[in-house]
Amino acid sequence: MSIPMKRFSLLLFFLPFVLVSCIDEDEFDNSARGNFEALWKIMDEHYCYFDEKKEVLGVDWNEVYTRYSKRVDSGIRQSQLFEVLAEMLSELRDGHVNLYSSFDVGRNWSWQENYPKNFSDSLERRYLGTDYKIAGSLKYRRLDDNIGYIRCNTFSSGFGESNLDHIMMYLAPCKALIIDMRNNGGGRITEAEQLAARFTDEERLVGYMKHKTGKGHNDFSDLKKQTIKPSSGVRWHKPVCVLTNRSVFSAANEFVKYMKQMDNVTVVGDWTGGGSGMPFTNELPCGWGVRFSACPMFDVEKKSTEHGIAPDVEVGLADSDWKKGVDTIIETARRLINK
Fold it and tell me: Are 116 and 303 in contact (CB under 8 A)?
């Protein structure tokens, strides 16, 4: 059965940056079988985490092909084909792997959905109040114990150097700073670097990355250093607590990785959600879009952060505190600072 060609706008979730790949692919016909073969081969030749997914999750991509190939025949409907292809991609359990059509988005969000949220909108409103300040996408205020609080829930909406200068100057009298990254699903990695650059006075090694160099599962460049250079604007030198939960993903995951290398920084909360692979996009013969991780990133010890980053102080949001209007993670950070 031929699948009709469709054009559509893609709503990309948790996307650090959109990169349209210039990958030459074999020609596949616009049929159910052709689209299945095209998707499997795109992933086989360009996805970057097959070894890690096999080691951690037991995923064998060739076995996945054999199992899902049996579900594709010439009589399959469009919606059924989408379901089969989306389920095949979900075997990788990668938040950066998505299938996009005009009627649905194939995804696997188990990196956050299978874990406690450790965040409350009502508690966020209680701590921010109504007189907080806004600079770009960042909200900030001084808490009553003279600790600065910055709420950073995205790296997609944008902020500039002047925004950060105003924030740092306003919070300068505070004895310490809390940066609440919880529920930050990512955005532009340049914003993560820009914010991290406010917390160092020297160029720092913060990790490594590789690039795909061939179609084999292990065809990668040598490790390339990732560094953060100090900002030319106002910088922060006092203690910092970065708050995390499992919904910290992609560019936000990278920000936590960067901050782990800065002086006087403590990460408080739950593991991050991961998502350290730089995503690329491609297209199937039927016009459906596919996004996948193509460039792996690592911490300073050359360990993958694809499956998340551990906090320095692990703590969850306690139900007993929530009922009293208290955010356990924020209060843990405040106690650490006030000690």
Answer: no
pTM of the model: 0.90
Note the pLDDT tens digit of each residue in 243-261.
999 999 999 999 999 999 9
Dihedral pair phi/psi, residue 7, rounded to 5° = -115, 140
pLDDT level of residue 24 (50, 70, 90 thresholds): very low
Burial (CB < 10 A; 0-12, 13-18, 19+), residue 60, is middle
How far, in Å, CA of 156 to CA of 12, rounded?
11
The confidence score (pLDDT) of residue 27 equals 82
Between the alpha carbon of residue 178 and those of residues 92, 143, 189, 330, the distances in Å are: 34, 10, 21, 8
DSSP string, 19-47: -B---------SBHHHHHHHHHHHHHHH-
- The 3-state DSSP class for residue 89 equals helix
Give the largest CA-CA distance in the chain: 69
Q: How far apart are CA 198 and CA 164, in angstroms?
A: 8
Give the tens place of pLDDT for each residue, 27-46: 899 999 999 999 999 999 99
Decide if 133 contacts 141 (C-beta within 8 A).
yes
Contact 279, 16 (CB under 8 A): yes
Write b or e for each residue in 124-152: b if 16 or more Cβ atoms lie within 10 A of its Cβ, otherwise e. Answer: beebbeeeeeebbbbbbbebeeebbbbbb
E strand residue ranges, the chain = 98-100, 105-106, 133-135, 138-142, 147-151, 176-180, 204-209, 224-228, 240-244, 265-269, 278-283, 289-295, 297-298, 313-314
Q: How far apart are CA 262 and CA 285, in angstroms?
A: 46
**C-alpha distances in Å from residue 165, one per residue of 146, 169, 326:** 19, 6, 30
Token digits of residue 141: 């205020």
Q: How many whole angstroms separate alpha carbon 63 and alpha carbon 68?
A: 9
Which of 327, 216, 194 lies closest to 269, judged by CA? 327
Is the model more confident about 10 or about 333? 333
